[in-house]
Amino acid sequence: MLNRTPNRPRPARRRPLPALELAARPNPWLRALGLTAVVLVGAWLGLLVVGNVRAPVGPMDTTMALRPSLSGGTKINVSPLGSLSLDSHVAPVRLDVNVDQLDPLRSQALVDHPERLSGLQDEVTRDVEHGTLDLAVRSCVAVVSGATALGLAVYRRPRRAVAAGGLALALLAAAAASAYATWNPKSVLEPRFSGLLSSAPSVVGNARSIVTEFDVYQKELARLVTNVTKLYDVTSTLPAYRPDPSTIRVLHVSDIHLNPASWKIIGSLVEQYKVDVIVDSGDTMDHGTAAENGFLDPIRDLGVPYVWVRGNHDSRTTQRYLERMKNVRVLDDGRAETVAGLRFAGIGDPQFTPDRSTAPGSAASEQLAGDRLASALRDQRTAGTPVDVAVAHEPSAARETDGTVPLVLCGHLHHEGTELLRFGTRLRMEGSTGGSGLRAVEREYPAPIEASILYFDRDSRRLQAWDAIKLGGLGLTTAEVSRHLADDNQPGATGTSRSPSPTPPSTSP
Fold first, then answer.
1. What average pLDDT does range 266-294 have in this prediction?
2. In a domain, 13, yes or no
3. How many CB atoms within 10 Å of residue 222?
4. Domain match, 188 and 255 both
5. E strand or H helix at 75, and its extent?
6. Strand-pair category, 60-68 with 53-57
7. Staple partner for 248: which of 311, 333, 382, 456, CB 3.0–4.6 Å?
8. Do 445 and 269 meet the contact criterion of CB atoms below 8 Å apart?
9. Global pTM value
């Protein structure tokens, strides 16, 4: 018999893969590059969405965040003054710190208990440590979540998504290690300023004045950190006047000098007194640089027309920026505008002297500017369109309009006053609505914040009365409102136009 062995299946011979299939398989390097891109994009999105931490630092509320960066470092944004950058570390992430606002309760506690100032440095250090720790935890969660979610959306495989999250966590740990290894605590001694802070040395003063007056700066620290909060509180208690429906209410401000507190105060006065139009007689800025222009943006949100003339601290750059705002009416070269039922005309200051070390020019240029404004006012009257209110920055220029207009408004000297000129024009000079701005502590007593509410009869368009408002300056908390009547509205005067009911001066603590 023949021995037959069972037939064994022969192993199938592998066919070589077609070139098309080989080309369809992804290259391992490309796969790794794609995964890295997904991880980086997902981690960045995670940091943007949930990577911010709000942390109190002393009397301030801040927002901390990590952002991708090629050079690392720390950036501190102090709105609206600008920012400063520190070379604190070298890593692919940058620490951003935004100073949001001053907390009224914590700042008030510093004023009520001055002894706490001695421990403020330790408190700030602890707050920064806690905020940084919270930021580290939040950033880890944000990075892993963002990379995992994007990995799942792209690859639709849980294993790939988990790998993306793990790789993101590893990259963040490597960045943290790099930052720790290159940490430079002395970087705070060599900051780089941008925006308005770039001129901080010239604004604060030279080193000698800082050293010799350091005790004054130290005493004013507690008041400085609470100034804005107190001023906001004061304006909310001002006695509001309820005028006749036919009355036009004008808010006169001047010499804001880059004080951000002024916008809150102006907004409060507009709301309480139902103001129809704001007149700014100049020196809204301090140096007139383009970097300061962002300071003017709140004007758009005041809700009423804003009539403005250029002061000697305002530049043509400032003027052009304001001319682009819809609610702003820039007056220059005697140009007239009808706003809220009143006809205004004004002229910008012919001098530009933002540097206090530069002596201003002669009074001849101011007188010439006043003559040009007076000539324009006479032309308007001849044409049958007389001007109701003229506006100039410098009082000497305003005096040249005597006899050509019923009322002229000005500023410049940082104190309020009223003068009835020889030929019947009333000159109303406003104080500094910015409390002299950054110069508030130059004198023995801080400069007050001043503004006025002017009441005009809608039919005759003549000034009936005005409220002079004076708020306590740096560290002070008083508010004084005094009512003044125009001459033809004094008791016994023979005038036919209506007058607001007079009220006695009042003080609000």
1. 89
2. no
3. 22
4. no
5. strand 74-78
6. antiparallel
7. 456
8. no
9. 0.55
